[in-house]
Amino acid sequence: MRACVQRVSRAEVRTGGAVRGSIAHGYVVLVGVETGDTQQDAAYLVRKLAALRVFEDEHEKMNRSILDVGGSILLVSQFTLLGDARHGNRPSFIRAERPAEADALFERLRALLVEAGLQVETGVFQTHMEVSLVNDGPVTILLDSKKTF
Q: Which pTM was predicted?
């Protein structure tokens, strides 16, 4: 399971012209579910997201977590995070999980984040979405439950 985490001062996701989720300060987390990912992969991402220290403390050092600052998460499914463009110019998405399985694991990830005490907003799975955000910093962190990077 891969995630692109962006620290934001605000963000929203729209589908069909309507706002489906919005947050003030926190994270936009784009998530790609890979074939073979399990609930353990989701649990790994929850632990990392809850504990990741990328918010400033009183000394302006990135030393506080999203839980410490009372931030929210805008969680958006994005299978293209698993695109492989190493060969040719058209990415291959064969590593992305099938939609039904990916949706179930994405929903489990959302539920685990809520259980961890985080407020979570989402987009709509398998639809065209428009994500607007103000990246704060900018701070962008890549996470992979398989620890490939």
A: 0.96
